Amino acid sequence: MPIRRGHVAPQNTFLGIIIRKFEGQNRKFVIANARVENCAIIYCNDGFCEMTGFSRPDIMQKPCTCDFLHGDLTDKEAINQVTQAVFGSEERKVEITYYRKDGK
């Protein structure tokens, strides 16, 4: 008897399409869930992990504002702009200093 696969929710299919589209383009990215508190990260690709020095389990469920990447030279105004853009669903261009897990 063949194994039958259960129903795949449309949002999961959509995420799979997004991941496949950008994964092969040498991009570093996260995907967050805007429907949960702090817009938690629900996916990060290997490139993002390599760039930041964090493992995927370290990153998952963290706020998509990436406050875990803030450091001494991360500008407070830039942090505010990123937060306003994310939670206000606005498009903004912000230059911000982020740090790797090792502090570099």
TrEMBL record:
Q: Which residues form the PAS domain?
A: 37-104
The molecular function GO annotations come to: inward rectifier potassium channel activity
The name this protein carries in UniProt is PAS domain-containing protein
Reactions accelerated catalytically: K(+)(in) = K(+)(out)
Q: Which GO terms describe its biological process?
A: regulation of membrane potential
Which subcellular locations apply to this protein?
A: Membrane
Q: Which Gene3D superfamilies match?
A: PAS domain
What does UniProt give as GO cellular component?
Answer: monoatomic ion channel complex; plasma membrane
Coarse class of the protein's main subcellular location: membrane
Q: Give the membrane topology, semicolon-separated if more than one.
A: Multi-pass membrane protein
Q: Which organism is it from?
A: Oreochromis aureus
Q: Name one Pfam family in it.
A: PAS_9
SUPFAM superfamilies, alphabetized: PYP-like sensor domain (PAS domain)
This protein's UniProt keywords = Ion channel, Ion transport, Membrane, Potassium, Potassium channel, Potassium transport, Transmembrane, Transmembrane helix, Transport, Voltage-gated channel
Q: Which InterPro entries match?
A: KCNH_animal-type, PAS, PAS-like_dom_sf
Q: Record keywords: RNA-binding included? A: no
